């Protein structure tokens, strides 16, 4: 099998004005793959402009496939609009939001809570679940209050759970999870899934693969698990036939798809990035939240946008599914997509 080098999704250069105009005309009738490519183009171009704004950069987000650049002053607004982008004037720069999120990260031992950056609302969104203890609720609420309107608190029903039961994909005969991505390490074929799955130990099998050994298992902190692929076949593609040719960073507002052995396929929207999620197993860092619907057995399954791989499923609740970024997994383990 010929390996493809891992890279962030690259795009053909367009003028921003032509790109955004094209998005307005074509998004409604575009095929899923064409829409994915338009989103990728919008994100790349918008990030280039946002990065040029320095301290006035408020981050970007996607609105029905069209990139919006957040700005904190009139000069930045003029520059972004001159490049052809819609803008939104916001109170907080992206750096300020990142600092606010990092401040929340200093709050430890608070299971059943989560927080991450929502560039669409220019806030750190802090989620507190019913299952959290009263002491945890009070602790996190007090920390969020110190951030003023840079943060908003959402009360969530139910309980956060890592998905590691019922389903059918890869199994060690004790728990069942889903394969995320076929990868290679030093030319050797391997399988990427969730770390809270591989933490269960054993040898794994699924499809025409058997006797897969654990190479790496990281959870909490990260949520990555790497297995050998001693036999079996499989290109770098979702089981629907969608090829995965690159890894890309998630963007708020981005339309994405997922696949898992319990709930199958489906789609959703990315609602937060760089989220710290306090599962009962410990805090998982750098997760991204989505509106995709998932369930037990889907753990480790892929999130993707067209040919771009985005991440592997950690878990969630009835409203939000959390994924660990593929770019971090590839970098951490020195992997390439198969």
From TrEMBL:
GO biological process: proteolysis
CDD domains: alphaLP-like
Class of this enzyme: hydrolase
GO molecular function: serine-type endopeptidase activity
InterPro entries, alphabetized: Pept_S1_alpha_lytic, Pept_S1A_streptogrisin, Peptidase_S1_PA, Peptidase_S1_PA_chymotrypsin, Streptogrisin_prodomain, TAT_signal
The protein, known as: Streptogrisin D
Pfam families registered for this protein in UniProt: Pro_Al_protease
EC number per UniProt: 3.4.21.-
């Amino acid at each position: 099998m010929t390996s493809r080098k891992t890279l962030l999704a690259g795009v053909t250069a367009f003028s921003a004005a032509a790109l955004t105009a094209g998005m307005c005309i074509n998004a409604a009738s575009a095929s899923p793959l064409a829409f994915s490519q338009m989103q990728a183009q919008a994100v790349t171009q918008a990030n280039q402009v946002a990065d040029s704004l320095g301290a006035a950069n408020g981050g970007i987000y996607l609105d029905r496939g069209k990139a919006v650049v957040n700005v904190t002053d009139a000069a930045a607004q003029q520059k972004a609009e001159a490049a052809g982008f819609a803008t939104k004037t916001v109170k907080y720069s992206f750096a300020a939001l990142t600092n606010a999120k990092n401040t929340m990260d200093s709050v430890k031992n608070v299971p059943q809570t989560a927080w991450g950056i929502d560039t669409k609302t220019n806030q750190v969104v802090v989620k507190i679940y019913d299952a959290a203890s009263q002491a945890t609720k009070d602790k996190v609420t007090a920390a969020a209050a110190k951030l003023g309107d840079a943060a908003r608190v959402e009360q969530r029903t139910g309980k956060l759970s890592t998905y590691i039961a019922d389903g059918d994909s890869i199994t060690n005969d004790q728990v069942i999870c889903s394969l995320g991505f076929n990868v290679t390490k030093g030319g050797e074929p391997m399988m990427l899934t969730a770390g809270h799955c591989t933490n269960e130990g054993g040898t794994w099998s699924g499809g025409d693969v058997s006797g897969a050994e654990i190479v790496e298992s990281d959870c909490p902190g990260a949520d990555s698990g790497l297995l050998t692929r001693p036999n079996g076949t499989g290109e770098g593609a979702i089981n629907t036939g969608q090829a995965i040719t690159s890894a890309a960073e998630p963007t708020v507002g981005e339309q994405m798809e997922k696949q898992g052995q319990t709930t199958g396929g489906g789609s959703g929207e990315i609602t937060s990035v760089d989220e710290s999620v306090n599962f009962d197993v410990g805090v998982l860092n750098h997760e991204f939240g989505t509106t995709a619907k998932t369930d037990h057995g889907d753990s480790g399954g892929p999130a993707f946008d067209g040919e771009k791989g985005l991440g592997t499923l950690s878990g969630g609740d009835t409203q939000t599914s959390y994924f660990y970024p593929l770019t971090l997994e590839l970098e951490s383990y020195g992997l390439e997509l198969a």
